[in-house]
Amino acid sequence: MKKLLLMLSMALLVGCFTAEAQNSMVITADQPQSTISEHIYGQFSEHLGTGMYGGLWVGEDSDIPNTDGFRDDVIEALKELQIPNIRWPGGCFADEYHWRDGIGPRDERPVRINTHWGMVEEKNQVGIHEFMRLTELIDSEPYISANVGSGTPKEMANWIEYMTYDGNSTLANMRRENGQEEAWEVKFWGIGNESWGCGGNMQADYYADLYRRYATFAKDYSGNELFKIASGFSDDRYEWTETVVEEAGYQMDAISLHYYTLPTGEWQKKGPSKDFGEDMYFSTLKQGLMMDEYVTRHSTRMDKYDPEKRITLAVDEWGVWTDPIEGSNPGFLQQQNSIRDALVASTTLDILNKHSDRVRIANIAQTVNVLQAMVLTDGDQMLKTPTYHVFDFYTVHHNTKLLPLHLNAEQYEYESESIPTVSATASKSDDGTVNLTVTNLHASELQEVTADIRGIDLSSVSEARILTADAVDAINTFDNPDNVSPQDYTDYDLKEGELTLRIPSKSVIVLRIR
Ligand code: AHR
C-alpha cells in the first residue's frame, strides 16, 4: 500500500512537471508535406530612395569598394542569405519603367523623373545589364516586373526577346553589342504591378483582359520558359483574385498578393520604427499575423478554379511599413529595423512555409535601405538588420519538406487582446536533418516549449542559434551594429526524441537536429 501511494505521488509529481511546460508541439517527421520552395525567401529591390542607388549601386568610379559598380560589402552580406530570386525594377516604378532607357553606354542614357518616389532624377545607370550582373554577383535568379500600366504589349515582347532569344534577330544582336553574348535565362516575369492602383487604376475585368493580351505576346524563346505572374490585390480584396483567376487563370503561373504590416493598422499614421513600447510591439506582431488569414482566403478563392493548386500565390511584396525616419525624404521609405520587425519576419515566414502548397514565391520589401530591409547603408558604412539574421536562420528551410507541426501555445495577452506566444516551422532536409525555427513573441516572459518529434531517431543538435534582445525596440546602429545579432543557443535538452526548449522573450531560435 505504502509503495502504491509512493508511486501515485510520483506520477502526480511527473504530471505536475509536464503540465509546467507552457507550450507543446508534436512534429511528425515521417509524414513530410509540401516542398518549401526556396523562392519563398526572395527579395525585392525597387528604384526607390537609396534602395538601388547608393545602397546597392555606387558606380565603378566610387571610392566605396565595388565590383562592376555594386558595393562589395552589401554583395557579400546578401550572398550569405542565399537569395533565390530578386524582384526588379518595381513596385510602382515598374509601370513607368521603359527598358530601352537602361541599355547602351551609361553616359548616354536618358534622365527621367521617378514620379512615384520623391520626384528624383532617374539616370538609368542600373538597367537590364547591370541588374543581371547583380543577380550573378549574389547568385540569385531575376524576377522582372514588367510595365503594363504605361507600356505596350510590343514593348514587353521586345524586352523578353532582347533578354532571352539566342538566335539571330535585331534585338538579340543589340544585346550582344551591349556586351551580353549569351541569352539570359529569365523565368519569373511579372505582368503589371498593383494594376488596381499605381499600376494603372484598373478594374478586375479590365485587367484580366489586358493580362490575357500581354501574356499572349510573352513568348518562350530558345528554351527559356517564362513563369508568368499576374498582378493580384493586397490584404483582403478577394474579389480581384477571384475575377482575374477565373478569367485569365489558364494563362498564368501565379497571381500576386501584397500585404504590408502597419504597426497601427492605419496608412495615414503607420507608427514608428524606433523608440516605441509594448503597445506598438504587440499591435505590429498582431497585424503581421493577419497574413495567415489573407493567404488562406485568397487561396480558397483560387481553389474554386484551381483546386489542384497549379497556380501559385506569389506574395511578392510583404513586410513592416512604418512612418519614415524623421528628417528623411518621405518618398524614400526609410525606416529602422528592430527585433520586433525580425519577429514579424519569422512569424510571416512560418505562415508562408505552412502554406507552401500554394505559396511558392514571395519577396520581402525591400532589400536595402527601404522598408523592412536586410541591410542599411550610410555612405561607406553598412549594417545587417535584425531581419537579416532571421533570413539567415531560415535558410535551413530552403527546398526542404514541410513537416506537420501541431502546436499548443499559450496566449500572449496585452490589454484586452491576445496572440499565440509561439510560432514555429519544422522541416526535413534530404539528408534527414530536422530543421526547427521557433519564435517566442512574448515581450517579457520566457517560454518553455516541449517538442515531441515522432517518426525519426534524433540524437544530436548540429546547429543552435538564437536572436534576441533586451528591449522590444532594440535596433542595430552604425555605432553598435551587432546590438541585435545571433548568439549560440544552449538552453535546451534533447532526450529520447523529446526536445525541451527554454526560449527567452522576443527571440527566434534555429535548431538543426539529426
Ligand atoms: O514597396 C513599396 C511600394 O509598395 C511598391 O512600389 C508598390 O508596389 C507597393 O504599393
From TrEMBL:
* Alpha-L-arabinofuranosidase C-terminal domain boundaries: 316-507
Which GO terms of the molecular function aspect are on file?
alpha-L-arabinofuranosidase activity
Q: What class of enzyme is it?
A: hydrolase
Q: Which residues form the signal peptide?
A: 1-21
Query: Known catalysed reaction(s)?
Result: Hydrolysis of terminal non-reducing alpha-L-arabinofuranoside residues in alpha-L-arabinosides
UniProt subunit comment: Homohexamer; trimer of dimers.
Protein name per the record:
non-reducing end alpha-L-arabinofuranosidase
The record lists the organism as Fodinibius salipaludis
